[in-house]
Design brief:
This is Glycoside hydrolase family 2. One of its GO terms (molecular function) is hydrolase activity. This protein is of the alpha+beta class. β24, α2 and β25 form a beta-alpha-beta unit.
């Protein structure tokens, strides 16, 4: 049984199109419409990319164009039929029964088409997808996907084509098009924006019911005006015994507020959908990150979001849940999803189980006007998709000056970072934004530092109590890069060590991955190195949070706390003890 792919706007009447599709490569780009395709020699298992072994193809060569074909049953009726794609990398053209239904560019964000008018009356339908994904194009947002034939350094195999779920669903004549939730903790209120699509004639009402732990918190009814309703739902104050504090969402107590949204014309139900939200605020107060109005230390781990057999696509929904559970079991309260817009189902499990997420835009690796236009468009869509997830607490449009490599000298590149920072704050005023994580900070709410020095003594000398922030920014250059650009001195923002560690440890190194920033020869040394590093960072008062590299081994990188198969390299309880508090030396795992 497939899990519904869009967890914050859930419909019951939907059909997954994941599974076996016809497939072919078109390396010369000779074909332009479905009728041109001469042969379908291959079968592919969607939603796994053709580079992934789980797809049944496992071809990691250079293939700039590929085609998909699937037959499915869907009988036309009075309802609208909408075809949805979770993500297709990079540019897609979709035909239904030979007629063009939709085009889309952007490898990490969803798109859809109303195919009601394209359906065959027999009920037998054919969908064909052409995907263009130039493997050498460095001006498109590509994240960790390598542009060389074989993965090198810190880049991984490419992901071309469909890599998230495809499905169709039936919508009534009047339907919920979008839902957007904005918590307002200080007033114990939930902001709700509803957008209605389809037939909006006559009086259409939205009825909203919020509940938690079986208790109804609110049941309101709003008139839809010009296709929308924007309201704040204030939860009632019961007096001195204020149960509302129990509703506050945090990793330690991830209380979700379930929602049912019904559209009615008069008293006649048009549609009912499921959703959820949470009471949660994230702010910056001077040098500290604040969760629900209280200082909160971020203990995060860098997560690339790759699997050996399936690449950027998870093996299944259970694998996404397991990754969230493992991060928490290792003592972390958050993850920095690195160079990937993660599947919404991962965010669902992070919401439900309690794990904070930094969302980071996959980088382009050339600075051009086209690259910036592509980044802005895709980043805007990602923010729109994930705005309502309580787990998402920070937006990161750039990482380590990737795509803007000359920030110290080229003013237009500075403008790009500043523009993306301000655009992000405009699209979402409720979360902090890191303009460029790692170094060369300009416009930013948090200064993130990347420092892979394996010496605890060096880290103490660089960031210890005797070091004033102005000394840090004027004199220290971890990785050989300045921490803040001229004209952007430290203004008191929180300082976090957002990449460090990267200790490689392989129990059976023969023929496997070995790369890391430093190395351990056995379990005892790995445990000691991790424990000592975490102890040093945790007890460095300058830092209001940290992010250890990394969650799991990823292809040639052996610097995970887990293997690529998600097996702990040392006992989880020993990792968790060091992650949470490292005052005592840890000897477990030997």
């Amino acid at each position: 049984m497939h899990a519904y792919p869009r967890p914050q706007l859930v419909r019951d009447d939907w059909t997954s199109l994941d599974g076996r599709w016809q497939f072919c490569f078109d390396d010369e780009g000779r074909w332009h419409c479905p009728e041109d395709v001469e042969d379908w020699p291959l079968q592919i298992e969607v939603p796994f990319a053709p580079e992934a072994r789980a797809s049944g193809i496992g071809d990691t060569g250079f293939h700039p164009v590929c085609w998909y074909r699937r037959e499915f049953e869907c009988r036309p009726g009075p309802e609208r039929v909408v075809l949805r794609f979770g993500a297709v990398d990079y540019a897609a053209r979709v035909w239904v029964n030979g007629r063009l239904a939709v085009t889309h560019e952007g490898g990490h964000t969803p798109f859809w088409a109303d195919i009601s008018g394209l359906l065959d009356e027999s009920g037998h339908q054919v969908v064909v997808v052409r995907v263009d994904d130039d493997p050498s194009d460095l001006a498109k947002p590509r994240g960790k996907q390598d542009w060389q034939l074989a993965p090198h350094a810190i880049w991984y195999p490419r992901t071309s084509g469909i890599w998230q779920t495809v499905w169709f669903e039936r919508l009534p004549a009047t339907f919920v098009d979008r839902i957007r939730w904005t918590p307002q903790v200080e007033n114990f209120a939930i902001g709700l924006e509803i957008r209605v699509g389809g037939d909006r004639s006559g009086e259409v009402w939205a009825e909203v019911e919020l509940s938690a732990a079986g208790r109804v918190l609110a049941r309101d009814r709003y008139l839809i005006v010009d296709g929308e309703a924007d309201r704040f739902i204030v939860l009632s104050d019961p007096g001195i015994d204020d149960f509302r504090n129990e509703l506050l969402w945090c990793p330690e107590r991830p209380t979700l507020i379930e929602a049912r949204v019904r559209l009615l014309r008069g008293d006649v139900l048009q549609e009912e959908v499921g959703s959820y939200t949470a009471l949660r605020s994230v702010t910056i107060l001077r040098d500290r990150f604040m969760l629900n109005g209280r200082p909160y230390t971020l203990r995060m781990v860098l997560d690339q979001g790759y699997w050996p057999e399936t690449l950027m696509t998870s093996p299944d929904d259970d694998a996404l849940r397991r990754d969230v559970e493992l991060a928490k079991a290792m003592g972390f309260n958050g993850v920095r999803k690195h160079q990937k817009i993660e599947d919404p189902r991962y965010l669902y499990w992070a919401d439900r189980l309690g794990l904070l997420v930094w969302e980071e835009m996959p980088s382009a690796y050339r600075f051009t006007r086209g690259a910036i236009r592509r980044t802005v468009r895709e980043w805007t869509d990602a923010i729109e998709r994930d705005y309502s997830h309580p787990c998402v607490i920070v937006w990161v449009p750039f990482n380590e000056s990737w795509g803007v490599p000359e920030l110290t000298a080229v003013r237009t590149q500075r403008h790009a970072v500043e523009a993306l920072y301000h655009l992000t704050r405009t699209l979402d005023a409720t979360r902090p934004v890191i303009g460029n994580d790692g170094w060369e900070s300009s416009a930013t709410d948090i200064i993130g530092i990347h420092d892979y020095d394996a010496s605890c003594e060096h880290l103490r000398q660089r960031y210890g109590a005797e070091i004033k922030p102005e000394q840090l920014f004027d004199r220290r250059r971890p990785g050989g890069r300045i921490l803040t650009l001229d004209g952007y001195p430290h203004r008191g923002q929180p300082i976090m060590l957002t990449e460090f560690g990267g200790i490689a440890f392989v129990k059976q190194p023969e023929g496997g991955a070995t790369w890391g920033y430093s190395a351990a020869r056995d379990e005892a040394q790995f445990t000691t190195l991790y424990s000592d590093l975490l102890h040093t960072v945790i007890h460095t008062a300058l830092f209001s949070g940290f992010c250890y590299t990394q969650f799991a081994d990823t292809f040639q990188e052996a610097n995970g706390l887990l293997t690529a198969a998600r097996e702990p390299k040392i006992p989880l309880e020993d990792i968790a003890r060091a992650t949470r508090e490292s005052r005592t030396h840890i000897v477990g795992g030997v």
